[in-house]
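Practice problem: predict the structure.
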Amino acid sequence: MLAARMGKAVFIMLAGMAFIPLGDSASKLLSSGAGVNPFFIAWSRFVVGTLCVLPFVHRHWWNTFRLPLAWVRGILLGCGITSITVALQTTDLATAFGGLFLAPIVSFVVAAFVLRETVTPARIFLIILGFLGVLLVAQPGLTFTPGKAAAVLAGTFYGLFLAASRAAAPKADAKALLFTQLVIAMLITLPFGVQQIPELTPRIGWLIVVSGVASMVGNFCLILAYGLAPATRMAPLVYFQLIAAFAFGWLVFGDIPNSLAQLGLALIIGSGFATLALRR
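Answer:
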C-alpha cells in the first residue's frame, strides 16, 4: 500500500515537472516567435492560473491574505516568473532552467542562516557541486548574456520563494497558499502587463492558455505529490524539469546546449538526486 502510494506520488510529480517546462515553451514561442512582451506573458500566466483555481476557492482561503508571508511569496513568485520569461526571450530553454536551478542553493543558504536548519558537510559539498553546475550552464566568463543574467535572477527569486514557502507551510493550507500566490503575483505584475497587451490572434490566444494552464497543472501536481509522500522524497524530483526542458528545447526549438552546459546540467541533476540519497 505504501509502495503504491509512493509510486503514484512519483508519477504525479514527474508529470508536474514536465508540465512546467511545457508552459515555459509556450512562453518562449510567445516572446521569441510571436513578439509578445515578456511582462505581458508573465502577467497572463497568473491571470489564467487564477481563473483555473477560482471555481474551487473555499471561503477560509481568503484569510490567508492576512499572512505577511503570503504576500512575500506572491511578490517573489511574480518577480521570479517575470525574470524567467524575460530570459526565455533570448535564451534556450535548458540554459534558462539551468540558471533557474540556482534556487536550491539560495534556499539552502536562507534555510541555514535564517531558518536555522541543520547543515552537514555532505550537504554543503552537494550545494557547491550544484553551484558549479549552474556556473557551467551560465558560463559567465564566456558569454554572460542579459538572458542568462535574467535566468540567474529568476533562480535567486525562486530560491527565496522556496525558503518563504517552507516558513509559511505550517501557517496555512497548501491550496490556500497556491491561490494567494497566484492572486498576489497577478496584482503586482498588473501595471506592467496591461501596458503591453498584444493583438490577440488565435495563435497568441492559445499559446497564452497553454502557458498558463500548463504552469498551473504543474504546480497543482506538485501539491498533490507532496500530499501523498514526504517532501524530502519528492523535492529532488524537481530536477526532472531540467530533463524535460532539454527535451522540449530540442523538439520545439532545435536547441542543444554546448558540452560545458550539458556537463553543468548533469552536475545539477546529480547533486539533487544525491541529496535524496542522503535524506534516506
